[in-house]
Every structure is written in structure tokens, then in C-alpha cells.
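Archive entry. Fields below.
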Amino acid sequence: MAVMTYRVLVVDDSKLARMAVAKALRTLQPEWTRVEATNADEALALVRDSAVDIALLDFNMPGRDGLDLAADLRKLHPTMPVAVISANTQVEIVNRTREIGASFLPKPLADPALKEFLAAAALHLASVAR
Amino acid sequence: MTDPVQTELDEFELDALTELVNLGVSRAATNLRDMVGQQVLLSVPTVALMSRERAIEVLGEREPKRLIAVHQVFEGDITGRALLIFPEIKSLELVRAVTGSDLPLEDIIELEQEALTETGNVVLNGCLATIANLLHRRLKISLPELLRGEGPEFFNLAPPPERGDVVIFIYINFVVKKHDVSGYIAMLMDMPSLSALKGLLRDFIYRATGDGAPDGDIPA
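PREDICTED_STRUCTURE:
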């Protein structure tokens, strides 16, 4: 059976942060594809127009923040694995992330944390697809 | 007209600096949250390089009243000052927020100096230490000092600044909702420090993205 490849949405207003995530994804899952957005509105438009399997969202962005976006994405696609990435590890933010049903990953993003999230996401998507 | 110092960092370097500041301030907010026992809301930071004169104007436009600032000097490959600035009128509210609201006013007043310098220390150190770590550099950070006055005084501290130094002005609004307290962070550095920072940012970009050579070829 062929190994599934997934399409990951990366949302961050910082180009540097998007590139850092892209680098980590290339290392961890070289076969997976990636789409990028710089804010929540762009991200939602992308999700409407093309299939996205997994989302990695920055928290602190101009316009609507990553938590609002995570909530929208979970409403549109209840089975989509979503992670919110931030150095802002205040308990209120981490808790809200979990309430939405998303994962919280600390920034700067470390490969092991992302690897663990992606592995769990792939497992989840495979079980949903069955 | 654009401020001439703005051209000292290119767009991608400014993006990297903004992201560094974002990381630093987010960590600092987490520390502050533990002090005040409730969520600290942060705006998206905008980072701009500007001349000292322009920074004074900007601060004057945003906060025309008297201000209070906690000030720390950092020294290392880059040398400068960091300031946590907020309206003086909010000072006792911030003290209330970090000490617990039920203290009588005379205690709040007595604690003001100590509570504010400690708050500034936690916020500025959290921010500077995160930035220094990410740049793989060590910064020596002085003890916090409390200042009262207006923008021009904060941006013209002794020893007199070198000619042509710049202010990295970080507009970041932090809000402690229950106490209606908000403030800004500013950093000042001279031109030699700015060119050192430029080099460190390029190394940081290289490490973060793994693209291009450390001294060039970084896509704009």
C-alpha cells in the first residue's frame, strides 16, 4: 500500500516563520505538500478553494488571530488536525486551543514537537479515511 | 518622506526582527501573566526603525501625557537600552495588578517603585533574553531603573547618545484587562550595534530557514 501524503496549510504573517515551518516539514515529511497564507482570511479562502488536510497556525497575527482561525477551520472541517503555534504560552491561550480541539505547539517550533503532532495527525487522518 | 534609517535593514531582516520581538514579547507576556494572575492580551507587534527625533514624535502622538518607564541597559555584540513605557496615570493600577488588588492605597504607593521595577525587569529580561538566545549571543543586562517624564527625556538619557543612533521602536500594546493597563516597549541602539544586529539577523535567518548562504542569497 502506498504511503499517504498530505497537504499542510501553514499560516503565519512572518515570512521567516513560514520558511522555518517549511524547512521542518521538508525534513520530517519530504513527500507532503504545503500551501501558505499570511492571515486568517487568506487561509479560509485557500481552504475553500483547495483540499487541505492539516493546518499549522501562528497565534499572534494581524486581523483575526490563530485561535479564531482554528475555531473556523474546525467548524468547516471537524476532522482536520489543527495546531496553533506560539511563544505565548499563557494558560488561557493553551486551554482555549485545547477547547477548540486543536493542539498547542510552542514557538520557536522544535522538530520533535512538530514530528509528534504530524505523526498523530497522519494516524488520525488514516483512521478517519477508513 | 521615509525615515532614512529604515533602509538599514531590508524587508526580510525586518520581518525576522519582528518575529524575534514577537517571540520575546510573547514569552515576556507569559511571565507577566504569572505575576498578575490573569491573561495579558498582546497586540501584534510592529517594529520600525526610526531616528530618535521621530520616535519622540511618535510617542508624543500616541501618549501625550506624562509617562513612566522601566529602563535597562543591555551590553554585548549589540549595546543599547530597552524601555517599558506606560502612562504615569496607570502606574498604581499596574502595581495593583501585580500585588493583588485588595491592598490599601498607602501600601500600593509604598510598593510602587519596587513593584514597577520588578515588573519591568520580568518583561524586559524575558524579551531580551529570548532575543539573545535566538541570536546565539549573550547580553549583559543592567538592573532596572524607574524613570518618570516624557518621551524626549526617555530617548535622551545620559551618557549622551552618539550621533545618528536609531531607535527600534516596537509598538506592542499589552493589556491587563481587569486593570485597564497598557504599555509599549522601545529599544534604542546606535549605528554600530545596528550593523552588528543586521549580521546576527542574517545568521538567524539562515539557521531558521536553511536556505541560501549565511552571507547572501537570501530570497527577499
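CURATOR_NOTE: Chain A touches chain B at residues 13-17, 19-20, 22-23, 60-62, 86-93, 107-108 (CB under 8 Å).
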